[in-house]
UniProtKB/TrEMBL annotation:
Record lineage: Bacteria, Pseudomonadati, Myxococcota, Polyangia, Nannocystales
Cited InterPro entries: ATPase_P-typ_cation-transptr_C, ATPase_P-typ_TM_dom_sf, Glyco_hydro_43, Glyco_hydro_beta-prop_sf, Glycosyl_Hydrlase_43
Protein family membership: Belongs to the glycosyl hydrolase 43 family.
Gene3D superfamilies, per database record: Glycosyl hydrolase domain, family 43
Keywords on record: Glycosidase, Hydrolase, Membrane, Transmembrane, Transmembrane helix
Recorded GO MF terms: hydrolase activity, hydrolyzing O-glycosyl compounds
GO terms, biological process: carbohydrate metabolic process
UniProt xrefs under Pfam families: Cation_ATPase_C, Glyco_hydro_43
Name of the featured protein: Family 43 glycosylhydrolase
Stretches assigned to coiled coil: none
Transmembrane segments: 33-54
Residue ranges constituting the Cation-transporting P-type ATPase C-terminal domain according to the UniProt record: 1-67
Length: 596
């Protein structure tokens, strides 16, 4: 940032000094000196950007404008309530990128940006062109948060994608009382719609919110099950009764096929009030023809059903990963990774066509085997689902099972700490509400939870949250590999890094990775605990959106590493949406304007 300011300041001084020289007759020596200084600065910048060794040495991050630069000669302009007048939608090619001279920024309720009546003054055209040129050179480092569209034929050429509108968002996007958000992206004839649902504990049905841009969310009105319950009591669904209703997430199985997975304590009789949580929950699944329709409809009386292999057709169900029919603690005499407890997410790998279920599980308490003594707590595993019916685990004793998250793995912690400057800060998987080391049954207790998966290019990414949810150390880290199987925590070839690093007494975690409205950029929708310790404040959590930005770290792999974020330092974010066409929300269409 200091170097950029220095360079742009020199450019500005050149133009202003030229006018002073004409007016006051100053010598040309100062102009020549300034030109030499600026020229040397530009040459130095070019060397840093294009010579890999220097670029790695100075670690210049690609610079991106957080606000639109409106360039036009003439009088000051005022911003209307729905759009910003900008340059015509001309495109210029630089460094293999398609650079838009105009990127309108919508100013509207829910989006942070210029307000109606704000004055935008245009710089002189010569200064403007210098600034645009400098920004173009800086952008040539190829930051992946603003990537060009790749030719599907892999010819190495870049093709221009649809014009985008950059919308400014301000966190939180939903108020307190909405922890553990799960988000589904659905493409339809009228564009992209996001469906968000959250934990309710014992406070009713799962809510549903919708959005077209990840910024403005509207409550849909009725819950996912369309049922009522007594406040503080269990929710009755097809003969069973559910308490501690947590971490719901919807996945699309087909054109008119959607599945809800969620965590709950399941009982055979009504509970009023619901009992305290005792690590006795399970993962349960229900189906619907639409994300807006009731899940577990009356014509499917067996739902919600405990996750696992098919009850009726698979004789191996008890020895494959599954949830218990009713609430019961500990591992019931079988290996603990086989007992699905909470935080489920379903992932379809578009490269292989395979379906996976990720979930959290607990060790026995107290530990019953030596391994549990050294690895006590909450872990994350994955199991492959039946490709013909992703609502059940594959009925195969050799089904793929991956242990992906272990809170006590020293190698993972060491690699996370070394993954970036500052990544050693607030790093732990074993801290409690007061920041203390958690101990249970006389041994260290650790937590890894809340898996979320997505694929980008050659790599599958798994996001995980570490430490207790109400701890000041609660954070999000990522692992990546070219296959789901290679995500195992014991695989030395997987990539690791940190995504959300807590600070300022705020903690961040548990969410969903989701593709943005433009179909290229990724975002993480998660919750925040605003004050830790949180006993006095009530421990309510709100919903935040954090862009997932990728960077090249000079290891020959390309821009596959996720850049770490300290979200407490800046609650603002931007979302790219199509400016026209079926994928554009109405406010984005309104922002599209022509030139003079």
């Amino acid at each position: 940032m200091t170097f950029t300011t220095f360079m742009v300041a020199n450019l500005g001084l050149i133009f202003t000094n030229r006018s002073w020289s004409r007016a006051e007759g100053e010598s040309r020596g100062r102009n020549a000196a300034l030109w030499w200084v600026t020229g040397g600065a530009l040459v130095f910048l070019a060397l840093v950007l294009y010579v890999p060794g220097l670029r790695e040495l100075f670690r210049f991050a690609p610079l991106r404008a957080r606000h639109p630069v409106l360039l036009r000669r003439g009088r000051p302009e005022r911003v209307s309530g729905s759009s910003l007048q900008g340059e015509p939608a001309a495109k210029r090619r630089r460094c293999g990128h398609v650079i838009g001279v105009r990127t309108p920024w919508t100013a509207r309720p829910g989006a942070r940006g210029l307000a109606p009546g704000d004055e935008v003054r245009r710089p002189d055209s010569r200064v403007a062109w210098a600034l645009v040129s400098a920004a173009s050179v800086l952008a040539c480092d190829g930051g992946s948060s603003d990537p060009p569209t790749a030719d599907p034929a892999s010819t190495g050429e870049w093709v221009q994608g649809p014009e985008l509108v950059w919308l400014a968002g301000q966190n939180p996007v939903l108020p307190t009382g909405h922890p553990d958000p799960g988000v589904l992206r659905v493409e339809g004839a009228h564009g992209v719609t996001y469906h968000l649902t959250t934990t309710v504990d014992n406070a009713g049905d799962f809510p549903r919110f919708t959005s077209t841009d990840l910024i403005v969310w509207t409550e849909a009105g009725h819950g996912l099950f369309g049922r009522d319950d007594a406040p503080g009591g269990s929710l009755a669904l097809d003969g069973a009764h559910y308490c501690s209703r947590w971490a719901p997430e919807i996945v699309q199985l087909g054109a008119a096929s959607f599945m809800l997975s969620f965590t709950a304590q399941r009982f055979a009789a009504p509970q009023s009030p619901c009992p305290p949580y005792d690590e006795d929950s399970g993962v349960y699944l229900a189906w619907s023809a639409s994300p807006a329709s009731p899940f577990a409809p009356p014509d499917r009386p067996w739902e919600p059903s405990p996750a696992g292999a098919d009850f009726e057709t698979c004789p191996y169900r008890p020895v494959l990963p599954h949830s218990l029919a009713f609430a019961a603690d500990d591992c019931q005499g079988i290996p603990c990774p086989l007992v699905m407890r909470l935080d489920s997410t379903v992932f379809h790998d578009p490269h292989t066509g395979r379906w996976w279920l990720a979930y959290s599980w607990y060790t026995n308490s107290p530990p019953k085997i030596a391994w549990e003594l050294a690895n006590h707590g909450q872990h994350v595993s994955l199991v492959e689902l039946d490709p013909n019916d992703p609502s059940v685990v594959r009925c195969d004793l050799a089904v793929a099972q991956i242990h992906a998250g272990n809170p006590h793995d020293a190698e993972t912690l060491a690699r996370l700490a070394a993954s970036c400057s500052g990544c050693e800060q607030m790093l732990s998987m074993t801290r409690g509400p007061l920041g203390e080391e958690m101990v249970r049954d006389g041994v260290s207790l650790g937590v890894v939870e809340a898996p979320s998966l997505f694929r980008r290019g050659e790599y599958v990414y798994l996001l995980l949250s570490g430490s207790n949810w109400d701890s000041p150390y609660y954070h999000v880290y990522w692992v990546a590999a070219k296959s789901v199987e290679a995500l195992a925590y014991t695989d030395p070839g997987r990539l690791v890094g940190r995504l959300l690093i807590p600070s300022d007494g705020q903690a961040f975690g548990h969410g969903s990775a989701v593709l943005g409205p433009d179909g290229e950029r990724w975002y993480f929708v998660h919750h925040r605990l605003a004050r830790v310790p949180c006993e006095e404040s009530g421990c309510d959590r709100d919903v935040w959106v954090s862009p997932i930005e990728f960077e090249d770290r000079g290891d020959g792999l390309g821009d596959v590493h996720i850049r770490p974020r300290w979200p407490a330092e800046d609650p603002s974010f931007i979302v790219a949406v199509p400016a026209s066409g079926p994928g554009a929300p109405p406010h984005a269409l309104a922002a599209e304007v022509g030139g003079d």
